[in-house]
């Protein structure tokens, strides 16, 4: 959807108008922003033809679109904060560890907020759930065994933890410029085959045949 919309003649004319009415930067960003918003809006409806899916798509589109337009503002704020705290060397563009961690947590929290609308049975229910996070968070349920009443066993949580660790390690490697796929290609053929068989077996045992759960069913089959 993105390119047909962004490169269409009406959106192109909109970009030309924005260049004249506002600035060259706005004119360049507007076509991509309109296309991005449309993609996320449809993605929300695809997750569910409900008001929750509608709001989920709208919020995603607004956040991504706003971030594109406000990028210079965010960069200026970040630079001022880091220079004031001495966490960044003058004249460098590399983010400090503090700002990098902050950005990761910020994005994670935003995604948690948006996922509530997919999980809730109604718009009102979504806002009720979000309100309870701040009014009555019930943090004690993380330690009193409530998590094991949600349908997952200790073994399930162990598999989940391993998966998160593997994904996190892969992301860290990618951020540091290490291509794990390239490393795999350079490894001996026997090692590549062993890793392939291991992960295929892992997915089969813990994914397709994990107890009575219908984990092999297509997750978006109802949409």
What does this structure look like?
The protein is an all-alpha fold and 223 residues long. It has ten helices and no strands. Helix 2 (9-21) packs across helix 3 (24-47) and helix 6 (97-119) crosses helix 7 (123-135). The longest helix is centred in the first third of the chain and has 24 residues, at 24-47. The chain is globular and about 60 Å long. The mean pLDDT is 81.
Q: Give me the count of strands.
A: 0
Helix content: over 70%
Gap between N and C termini: 19 Å
Gyration radius from CA atoms, angstroms: 23 Å
DSSP helical segment count: 10
SSE pattern: HHHHHHHHHH
List the main descriptive attributes of the protein structure presented here.
223 residues, mainly alpha, 10 helices, 0% strand
Describe the structure concisely for a colleague.
With 223 residues, the chain is an all-alpha fold. It contains 10 helices and no strands. The protein is globular and about 60 Å long.
Helices and strands, with pairings:
Elements: H1 2-6, H2 9-21, H3 24-47, H4 51-69, H5 71-85, H6 97-119, H7 123-135, H8 154-175, H9 180-186, H10 189-208
Helix pairs in contact: 2-3, 3-4, 4-6, 6-7
């Amino acid at each position: 959807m993105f390119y047909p919309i962004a490169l269409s003649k009406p959106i192109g004319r909109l970009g030309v108008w924005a260049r004249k009415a506002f600035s060259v930067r706005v004119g360049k960003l507007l076509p991509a922003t309109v296309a991005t918003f449309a993609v996320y809006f449809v993605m929300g409806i695809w997750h569910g033809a409900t008001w929750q899916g509608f709001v989920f798509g709208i919020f995603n589109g607004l956040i991504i679109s706003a971030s594109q337009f406000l990028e210079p503002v965010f960069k200026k704020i970040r630079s001022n904060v880091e220079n004031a705290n001495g966490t960044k060397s003058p004249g460098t563009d590399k983010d400090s560890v503090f700002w990098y961690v902050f950005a990761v947590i910020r994005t994670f929290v935003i995604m948690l907020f948006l996922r509530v609308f997919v999980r809730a049975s109604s718009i009102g229910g979504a806002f009720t759930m979000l309100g309870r996070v701040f009014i009555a968070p019930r943090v004690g349920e993380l330690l009193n065994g409530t998590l094991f009443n949600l349908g997952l066993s200790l073994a399930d949580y162990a598999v989940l933890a391993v998966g998160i660790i593997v994904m996190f390690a892969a992301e860290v490697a990618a951020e540091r410029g290490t291509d794990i796929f390239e490393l795999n290609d350079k490894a001996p053929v026997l090692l590549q085959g062993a890793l392939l068989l291991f992960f295929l077996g892992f997915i089969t045992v813990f994914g397709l045949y994990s107890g009575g759960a219908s984990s092999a069913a297509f997750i978006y089959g109802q949409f």
